[in-house]
Amino acid sequence: MRALLMLLGLLTGLALAIPVEFRYEPPEGLKVQSVSLRGSFNGWGETPMAPVEGGFAVTLLQQAKFLRIAYSYASRYDQVKNLFWYLVQDVGGVSTGLRTTTGWHKPSWFAFAGGNSVSIYALPYVKPGSYVNVRGKIACETFGPVPDRTVRLQGRRLGALTWSTLASVRTDAEGRYLFRPTVWRPMQYRVVWPEIKTSDVRTVRVY
What we know:
This protein is of the alpha+beta class. The chain has two domains: 2-113, no CATH class; 116-206, SOR catalytic domain (Immunoglobulin-like). Helices cover 22% and strands 30% of the residues. It contains four helices and 17 strands. The chain has helices at 2-17, 60-74, 78-84, 107-113, and strands spanning 23-24, 36-37, 47-48, 50-52, 55-57, 116-118, 125-126, 130-131, 134-140, 144-145, 150-157, 164-170, 176-179, 182-183, 187-193, 197-198, 202-206. Strands 7, 11, 12, 15, 16 and 17 form a six-stranded mixed β-sheet that branches.
């Protein structure tokens, strides 16, 4: 019985600890230049907190990243997955939910729900100095296309290892995006839905 209670306590604690807003407000008169967050969710590394009015806080994208890491562990327990949904929406000015008080889905909602996709299409060959349409759509299994979200185009020269962010746009009402980079040499492109999903890689060569 004692072991069962300990297990239930652990599961409840995990469920209540994941979608949370971390905020630090320094005492009046104390000048603080930066604040970092450490915990098991980031491997006890150092995650800088974003400056906000009156102090520092974890951003929505950081919250999504932490939740995805924690959920990869906690999803092994059905009790935890069920308990998570009690904190699905912010209430009373407390930003611990996966949705805001207006119902807007935070990045952490998609990280928790899963089933997300980023499609990508681009012509495989173009003339040097011409542009190529890199287009696609973001979606989730729960309600299909996801509108009005920021996605980023990343590119690298063929054979390079490091990706660079080239541009960003917001998806339209059908969850679609369009980038038109100019191509001078063979390039690889991918599209990132920040902290949620990254598309496959498309190679564009010149002729």
